[in-house]
Amino acid sequence: RYNPGEVSTLIIAHVDSLADAGLIDRRRGGVHPDTQQRALTRIRPDLDLLAMFEALPVSVRQSVALHPSAEFIILRDSDKNDINYIDTDETRAMRRRLVGYNLLLDRTFIDIPSLGHPPFIVTQNKARRGRQPSTRRVTISQSSKRVYRIFSNGDWDQGGRFWRGFWMNLRSAERRLLHIDNEPTVELDYAGLHPVLLYAEAGVDYWARSDRRPYETIEVLDTDTDELISSDIIKVFLLIMLNARDRSSGFKAVRSSLGGKTGEVRLTNKLLDRLLEAIRQSHPIIGDQLGTGV
Q1: CB 63 within 8 A of CB 144
Q2: Of 108, 114, 116, 113, residue with least CA distance to 181
């Protein structure tokens, strides 16, 4: 299902031959000794190989197309391994829509024209608990535009977000530089999108009930500092708990995400339990969905 072209390990021998002939530049992947980040092997054509392609009667871009059986709907188990599944009317409909969207992306030029060559951005990942912020390089490439929907834990009700388009790895400040077909873009900010969607699923228009963002209606006092917990912490806590499978994994994810950014606030279970209860009281319509993996 996930390898419709039946690409085998023989491709490694072909890559080795191209490298030996000096037709490609290759940087092998592995684990960085300092950051412990994993990197894939990266290859790019040498000028001689590019000249061979330029001599062809058609462009490479025109001759490369989606495989007719390419799989864009991915189901993973709890260990994040891709698993097989039986198609249903719903999965077929999702696939048709996604194939159409990817065909649209294929014929759309998405770029950051202010970048040099080769076009890439070094972006900074968020600091995790006990770790320093890390950096990674995001290449702005027309070959990295196709998107996939990935469902989690062998359950079609979990996950399903769009992944892998190169712009998804950029920070908001970097996404503002994107152009589509040489036209500048504007990214709309939908305040409190996840909880507002849950209200909508319950048949309630949140903005008809309140003019404050969902996380701004919650007030919790930190008994250690005698100060109110900041709305930034509450926002992260709310969003993570809406996606967490249970209380324990949610609390762990909150600490990992907010590590080093809470000042004097200690994210103890007692404090997080009080936050959880405060959200449920402030948002009783959706409160029972916290920590359910919704």
Answers
A1: no
A2: 108
Q: Is 205 left (phi over 0), alpha (psi -120 to 50) or beta?
A: beta
- Along the 294 residues of the chain, how does pLDDT read in single tens digits? 777 666 677 888 888 999 999 999 988 888 777 666 677 788 888 989 888 888 887 666 555 666 667 889 999 998 888 999 999 999 999 999 999 999 999 899 998 888 876 666 666 555 554 555 567 678 788 888 899 999 988 999 888 889 989 998 888 788 888 999 999 998 776 667 888 888 998 999 988 888 888 887 777 877 776 678 888 888 888 888 888 888 888 888 888 888 766 777 788 888 888 888 988 888 888 888 888 876
| Residue 234: count of CB within 10 angstroms of its CB | 23
The DSSP secondary-structure symbol of 96 reads: H
**Contact by Cβ (8 Å): 276, 283:** no
* Cα–Cα distances in angstroms (integers) from residue 195 to residues 106, 164, 251, 279, in the given order: 33, 24, 18, 11
Q: Confirm whether pTM is higher than 0.85.
A: no
CA gap 161, 200 in Å, rounded = 18
Kindly state the tokens that stand for 88.
């249903």
Identify the bridge partners of residue 149 per DSSP, sorted by sequence position. 73, 162
Neighbours of 128 (CB within 10 A): 15
**Locate tokens 């037709």: which residue?**
23
Residues near 275 by Cβ (< 8 Å), separated by ≥ 6? 218, 220, 229, 234, 237
Between strands 73-76 and 159-163, the pairing is unpaired
Q: Is 57 exposed, middle or buried (0-12, 13-18, 19+ CB in 10 A)?
A: exposed
- Residue 294 CA to residue 287 CA, distance in Å, equals 11
